[in-house]
Amino acid sequence: MFDKIISRDDFAAMLKDEMSIMVGGFLGCGTPETLIDIIIASGVKNLTIIVNDTSFVDRGVGRLVAAKQVARVITSHIGTNPETGKQMVEGTLAVELVPQGTLAERIRAAGAGLGGVLTPTGVGTIVEEGKQKLTIYGHEYLVELPLRADLAVINGSTVDKAGNVVYNATTRNFNPLMAMAASTVVVEAEKLVEIGTIMPELVMTPAPLVTHIFKSEKR
Amino acid sequence: MIEDIELAKNIIARRIAREFKNNQLVNLGIGLPTLVANHIPTGINVILQSENGMIGMGPAPEPGKENPELTNAGGALVSILPYGSYFDSAMSFALIRGKHVEYTVLGALEVDQEGSLASWIIPGKKIPGMGGAMDLVVGAKNVIVSTLHTERGKPKILKKCRLPLTARHVVNMIVTELGVFRVTPGGLALFEINSNTTVDEIRANTEAEFIVSENLKTMET
Asked: Which of A41, A152, A168, B18 is deepest in the core (most CB within 10 A)?
């Protein structure tokens, strides 16, 4: 009925040089490892990635950085992946550091159709450089703009064949936000179940947000 | 001075743990602040938030009970207590910025007498990124900085931070192994002192100007 399940080749065919990709996960927890395998195998280059952090050299999106396929990263933390810092210093990787809560809200704003958000975070620091400031009820806020991507790759713990997603424990993090902020959304399903298996009350990302489902091959 | 760094860290953690009241929601940063959880007094229930998306964080799991889907903001495997909950990063930071978190405890590269904090970047040297720190210090109701009083002999509490700021004028309390300071409208003030040191020794190891509270107490260590 929904016909959303795709193969490795189908996913590889969606990838292009210079595209922007949001990748769910927090230090590798709740990240679509098989989809990252396929991005690496495809050899696409000069990607812009939007991620909470660049994980570790051998885990999650960190592997994509280590494979030198990323030209630009928008993230809150790079400290656990020495390769990110190295490529930044060498000048081959542009890093835009964004406070974690601001990153979440910029992605949410894009997915929620908002023109941006006003946040007190970063006022009086280098984060405010080049940004518009507004005073509301006597308090200063930075205007932070929405953040969209061509593609979001997210990780679902349980996914039904319509694309409804449940995230276990702390794997949720940025995944449901990114599922709303990209033109194409591919979920890596750790467990793929029949429609009707997930109680509607427990769905965390509603099916229409998910464009494609890929059955995880995680070890 | 206290030479034993592990002892010093535990003195700081123990003192901070005494600050909390029953059922307060608290976020502990990575490193020294994490130690605070080991010193919560019996009879006080502190509800821990982890900004990757959890309330009710419990201790490291027993061997064999590790769940790779359950980690804290430092990526370490943890557990969740029966009253806990999970949520996404937008909800997590809404809790933080929305003043729903009573205390945030975090470390510092530098902290100053105006309550400004530098903790995320040493330009040209070390650039880990701010992670959730900027949101935490702006949003939490109370900001406690936990830091050794000096690093390689150099004071950590300065007149004015020299490194790029995490936030300005947000710190309420600074706890070191030598004493407890609060940022007050009248300036930085020493409220408690470790019985193993003196005000003169603290002054000699502090760049910031501070006043000594009329109610100076001995720090419980």
From this structure: A152
